[in-house]
Amino acid sequence: METRELRYFVAVAEELHFGRAAQRLAMAQPPLSRAIQQLERRLGVVLLDRTARAVALTEAGSVLLREARAALDAVEAAERRTRRAAAEPPGVVLATKAGASRELLSKLLDAYAAEPGAVAVEVMLCGPGEQEGLLRDGRADVALLQRPFDTTAGLDTEALHSEQQVVVLPAGHPLATRPHLSMAEVTTLTDLPLPRWPRRSGGYPDGPGPQVRDHTQLFQLIALGRACAVVPESLRAHLRDDHATVPVPDAPTVTTVIAWPPHSRSKAVADLVRTATRL
Questions:
Q1: What's phi and psi for 2, nearest 5 deg?
Q2: pLDDT, averaged across the chain
Q3: Which residues form the HTH lysR-type domain (predicted)?
Protein backbone atom coordinates (compact mmCIF):
# COMPACT_ATOMS: atom_id res chain seq x y z
CA MET A 1 0.00 0.00 0.00
CA GLU A 2 1.13 3.54 -0.73
CA THR A 3 0.98 6.36 1.79
CA ARG A 4 -1.19 8.27 -0.67
CA GLU A 5 -3.79 5.48 -0.57
CA LEU A 6 -3.67 5.39 3.22
CA ARG A 7 -4.26 9.14 3.41
CA TYR A 8 -7.21 8.82 1.05
CA PHE A 9 -8.70 6.00 3.10
CA VAL A 10 -8.20 7.77 6.45
CA ALA A 11 -9.96 10.87 5.12
CA VAL A 12 -12.98 8.84 3.94
CA ALA A 13 -13.03 6.73 7.12
CA GLU A 14 -12.98 9.79 9.36
CA GLU A 15 -15.50 11.81 7.35
CA LEU A 16 -17.71 8.81 6.41
CA HIS A 17 -18.65 10.87 3.37
CA PHE A 18 -16.85 10.81 0.02
CA GLY A 19 -17.76 14.40 -0.84
CA ARG A 20 -16.40 15.84 2.42
CA ALA A 21 -13.32 13.63 2.20
CA ALA A 22 -12.62 14.81 -1.36
CA GLN A 23 -12.99 18.43 -0.27
CA ARG A 24 -10.63 17.81 2.66
CA LEU A 25 -8.06 16.28 0.29
CA ALA A 26 -8.54 19.07 -2.28
CA MET A 27 -9.40 16.61 -5.05
CA ALA A 28 -12.40 15.53 -7.09
CA GLN A 29 -14.69 12.83 -5.75
CA PRO A 30 -14.59 10.31 -8.67
CA PRO A 31 -10.81 9.62 -8.49
CA LEU A 32 -11.09 9.30 -4.71
CA SER A 33 -13.85 6.69 -5.06
CA ARG A 34 -11.80 4.78 -7.65
CA ALA A 35 -8.73 4.81 -5.39
CA ILE A 36 -10.69 3.29 -2.49
CA GLN A 37 -12.20 0.64 -4.78
CA GLN A 38 -8.75 -0.28 -6.11
CA LEU A 39 -7.46 -0.56 -2.53
CA GLU A 40 -10.33 -2.88 -1.62
CA ARG A 41 -9.70 -5.06 -4.69
CA ARG A 42 -6.00 -5.34 -3.93
CA LEU A 43 -6.62 -6.27 -0.30
CA GLY A 44 -9.51 -8.57 -1.17
CA VAL A 45 -11.77 -7.07 1.52
CA VAL A 46 -14.64 -4.61 1.81
CA LEU A 47 -13.51 -1.60 3.82
CA LEU A 48 -16.66 0.51 3.61
CA ASP A 49 -20.35 -0.32 3.52
CA ARG A 50 -21.91 2.14 1.09
CA THR A 51 -25.60 2.93 0.75
CA ALA A 52 -27.41 5.80 -0.93
CA ARG A 53 -27.65 7.55 2.45
CA ALA A 54 -24.55 6.64 4.43
CA VAL A 55 -21.01 5.27 4.48
CA ALA A 56 -19.93 3.02 7.35
CA LEU A 57 -16.73 1.20 8.25
CA THR A 58 -16.66 -2.58 8.14
CA GLU A 59 -14.66 -4.53 10.73
CA ALA A 60 -11.80 -4.73 8.24
CA GLY A 61 -12.09 -0.99 7.63
CA SER A 62 -11.84 -0.27 11.35
CA VAL A 63 -8.64 -2.31 11.54
CA LEU A 64 -7.13 -0.54 8.53
CA LEU A 65 -8.06 2.87 9.95
CA ARG A 66 -6.18 2.13 13.15
CA GLU A 67 -3.18 0.69 11.32
CA ALA A 68 -3.15 3.43 8.66
CA ARG A 69 -3.06 6.17 11.28
CA ALA A 70 -0.10 4.47 12.96
CA ALA A 71 1.68 4.00 9.61
CA LEU A 72 1.19 7.63 8.57
CA ASP A 73 2.33 8.83 11.98
CA ALA A 74 5.47 6.70 11.62
CA VAL A 75 6.20 8.17 8.17
CA GLU A 76 5.82 11.73 9.48
CA ALA A 77 8.02 10.91 12.49
CA ALA A 78 10.71 9.52 10.17
CA GLU A 79 10.63 12.72 8.09
CA ARG A 80 10.99 14.94 11.19
CA ARG A 81 13.81 12.89 12.71
CA THR A 82 15.68 12.75 9.39
CA ARG A 83 15.54 16.53 8.93
CA ARG A 84 16.60 17.15 12.54
CA ALA A 85 19.53 14.74 12.21
CA ALA A 86 20.90 16.93 9.42
CA ALA A 87 20.31 20.20 11.29
CA GLU A 88 23.23 22.48 12.10
CA PRO A 89 24.14 22.99 14.83
CA PRO A 90 23.03 19.59 16.19
CA GLY A 91 20.70 19.45 19.15
CA VAL A 92 18.30 17.33 21.19
CA VAL A 93 14.62 18.04 21.87
CA LEU A 94 13.47 16.93 25.32
CA ALA A 95 9.72 16.91 26.08
CA THR A 96 8.41 17.05 29.63
CA LYS A 97 5.16 17.89 31.38
CA ALA A 98 5.15 21.48 32.65
CA GLY A 99 5.73 21.53 36.39
CA ALA A 100 6.67 17.85 36.65
CA SER A 101 10.15 16.64 37.70
CA ARG A 102 11.34 20.26 37.86
CA GLU A 103 14.26 19.62 40.22
CA LEU A 104 15.33 16.50 38.31
CA LEU A 105 15.15 18.34 34.98
CA SER A 106 17.27 21.23 36.26
CA LYS A 107 19.95 18.87 37.58
CA LEU A 108 19.89 16.84 34.35
CA LEU A 109 20.37 19.87 32.10
CA ASP A 110 23.23 21.21 34.23
CA ALA A 111 24.98 17.84 34.43
CA TYR A 112 24.62 17.15 30.70
CA ALA A 113 25.87 20.63 29.75
CA ALA A 114 29.09 19.83 31.64
CA GLU A 115 29.69 16.68 29.58
CA PRO A 116 32.31 16.82 26.80
CA GLY A 117 30.60 16.94 23.43
CA ALA A 118 27.26 18.09 24.86
CA VAL A 119 24.88 19.61 22.32
CA ALA A 120 22.11 22.16 22.82
CA VAL A 121 18.97 20.79 24.52
CA GLU A 122 15.64 22.33 23.56
CA VAL A 123 13.07 21.76 26.31
CA MET A 124 9.44 21.43 25.19
CA LEU A 125 7.06 22.01 28.11
CA CYS A 126 3.64 20.52 27.45
CA GLY A 127 0.38 19.53 29.07
CA PRO A 128 -0.38 16.21 30.79
CA GLY A 129 0.05 13.26 28.43
CA GLU A 130 1.33 15.34 25.52
CA GLN A 131 5.03 14.54 25.86
CA GLU A 132 4.44 10.90 24.91
CA GLY A 133 2.85 11.95 21.61
CA LEU A 134 5.68 14.39 20.87
CA LEU A 135 8.18 11.57 21.32
CA ARG A 136 6.26 9.07 19.19
CA ASP A 137 5.62 11.43 16.28
CA GLY A 138 9.22 12.60 16.04
CA ARG A 139 8.86 16.14 17.36
CA ALA A 140 10.94 15.18 20.42
CA ASP A 141 14.03 12.96 20.70
CA VAL A 142 13.67 12.07 24.37
CA ALA A 143 11.03 12.63 27.05
CA LEU A 144 10.47 12.49 30.78
CA LEU A 145 7.34 10.39 31.35
CA GLN A 146 5.51 9.34 34.49
CA ARG A 147 4.12 5.87 34.90
CA PRO A 148 1.29 4.91 35.33
CA PHE A 149 -0.07 8.15 33.80
CA ASP A 150 1.95 7.87 30.56
CA THR A 151 2.17 4.82 28.31
CA THR A 152 5.71 3.65 27.57
CA ALA A 153 4.85 0.61 25.41
CA GLY A 154 7.14 0.43 22.39
CA LEU A 155 9.67 2.88 23.85
CA ASP A 156 13.03 2.29 25.50
CA THR A 157 13.09 3.61 29.07
CA GLU A 158 15.22 3.97 32.16
CA ALA A 159 13.56 4.51 35.55
CA LEU A 160 14.90 7.59 37.34
CA HIS A 161 12.76 8.24 40.42
CA SER A 162 9.72 6.84 42.26
CA GLU A 163 7.44 8.68 44.67
CA GLN A 164 4.18 8.29 46.54
CA GLN A 165 1.05 10.34 45.94
CA VAL A 166 -0.91 12.80 48.06
CA VAL A 167 -4.40 14.22 47.83
CA VAL A 168 -4.61 18.00 47.49
CA LEU A 169 -7.51 19.57 49.42
CA PRO A 170 -8.60 23.14 50.09
CA ALA A 171 -6.94 24.49 53.23
CA GLY A 172 -9.31 24.18 56.17
CA HIS A 173 -11.16 21.14 54.81
CA PRO A 174 -12.21 18.78 57.64
CA LEU A 175 -10.04 15.95 56.25
CA ALA A 176 -6.94 18.12 55.89
CA THR A 177 -5.76 17.19 59.41
CA ARG A 178 -5.93 13.42 58.82
CA PRO A 179 -2.55 11.58 58.86
CA HIS A 180 -3.54 9.74 55.68
CA LEU A 181 -6.52 8.90 53.47
CA SER A 182 -7.35 5.90 51.28
CA MET A 183 -8.26 6.08 47.61
CA ALA A 184 -11.74 4.84 48.52
CA GLU A 185 -12.20 7.80 50.86
CA VAL A 186 -10.92 10.24 48.23
CA THR A 187 -13.24 8.94 45.51
CA THR A 188 -16.30 9.32 47.77
CA LEU A 189 -15.73 13.02 48.47
CA THR A 190 -18.89 14.22 46.73
CA ASP A 191 -18.21 17.84 47.70
CA LEU A 192 -14.74 17.66 46.09
CA PRO A 193 -14.96 15.49 42.96
CA LEU A 194 -11.81 14.35 41.19
CA PRO A 195 -10.98 16.31 38.00
CA ARG A 196 -11.49 15.02 34.47
CA TRP A 197 -8.44 15.23 32.21
CA PRO A 198 -8.81 15.19 28.40
CA ARG A 199 -8.32 11.91 26.55
CA ARG A 200 -5.83 11.66 23.69
CA SER A 201 -8.76 12.14 21.33
CA GLY A 202 -9.46 15.51 22.92
CA GLY A 203 -12.75 14.58 24.61
CA TYR A 204 -13.38 14.27 28.33
CA PRO A 205 -14.60 11.19 30.23
CA ASP A 206 -18.02 11.36 31.87
CA GLY A 207 -18.21 12.25 35.54
CA PRO A 208 -19.12 14.91 38.07
CA GLY A 209 -15.63 16.46 38.34
CA PRO A 210 -14.59 19.65 36.56
CA GLN A 211 -12.79 19.51 33.21
CA VAL A 212 -9.15 20.58 33.54
CA ARG A 213 -6.28 21.06 31.07
CA ASP A 214 -3.31 21.89 33.33
CA HIS A 215 -2.20 21.96 36.96
CA THR A 216 -2.53 25.73 37.29
CA GLN A 217 -6.22 25.47 36.48
CA LEU A 218 -6.59 22.40 38.71
CA PHE A 219 -4.98 23.96 41.79
CA GLN A 220 -7.11 27.09 41.47
CA LEU A 221 -10.28 24.95 41.39
CA ILE A 222 -9.09 23.09 44.49
CA ALA A 223 -8.42 26.34 46.35
CA LEU A 224 -11.98 27.43 45.45
CA GLY A 225 -13.37 24.23 46.97
CA ARG A 226 -14.55 22.79 43.64
CA ALA A 227 -12.32 19.70 43.39
CA CYS A 228 -9.58 17.60 44.93
CA ALA A 229 -6.78 15.73 43.18
CA VAL A 230 -4.36 12.87 43.80
CA VAL A 231 -0.91 13.92 42.55
CA PRO A 232 2.76 12.96 42.98
CA GLU A 233 4.10 14.35 46.26
CA SER A 234 6.77 16.37 44.41
CA LEU A 235 4.00 18.71 43.20
CA ARG A 236 3.72 20.02 46.76
CA ALA A 237 6.35 22.57 45.71
CA HIS A 238 3.74 24.24 43.46
CA LEU A 239 1.08 24.62 46.14
CA ARG A 240 0.07 27.76 47.99
CA ASP A 241 -1.14 28.45 51.52
CA ASP A 242 -4.75 27.83 50.46
CA HIS A 243 -3.97 24.14 49.77
CA ALA A 244 -3.46 21.20 52.10
CA THR A 245 -2.05 17.74 51.32
CA VAL A 246 -2.67 14.35 52.91
CA PRO A 247 -0.72 11.17 52.01
CA VAL A 248 -2.65 8.45 50.14
CA PRO A 249 -0.62 5.28 50.83
CA ASP A 250 -2.65 2.96 48.60
CA ALA A 251 -2.47 5.24 45.53
CA PRO A 252 -0.22 3.86 42.75
CA THR A 253 3.46 4.73 43.04
CA VAL A 254 4.54 7.24 40.37
CA THR A 255 7.80 6.47 38.56
CA THR A 256 9.54 9.09 36.43
CA VAL A 257 11.34 7.54 33.46
CA ILE A 258 13.43 8.90 30.63
CA ALA A 259 12.18 7.47 27.33
CA TRP A 260 13.39 7.45 23.73
CA PRO A 261 12.49 5.61 20.47
CA PRO A 262 14.03 2.12 20.40
CA HIS A 263 15.57 2.68 16.95
CA SER A 264 17.38 5.89 17.98
CA ARG A 265 21.09 5.88 17.16
CA SER A 266 21.73 9.44 18.35
CA LYS A 267 24.90 9.78 20.41
CA ALA A 268 23.46 12.93 22.01
CA VAL A 269 20.36 11.02 23.17
CA ALA A 270 22.54 8.21 24.50
CA ASP A 271 24.71 10.69 26.42
CA LEU A 272 21.64 12.46 27.85
CA VAL A 273 20.13 9.16 28.99
CA ARG A 274 23.46 8.10 30.52
CA THR A 275 23.65 11.37 32.43
CA ALA A 276 20.07 10.99 33.67
CA THR A 277 20.59 7.46 34.97
CA ARG A 278 23.81 8.52 36.69
CA LEU A 279 21.91 11.27 38.50
A1: -95, 150
A2: 91
A3: 1-58
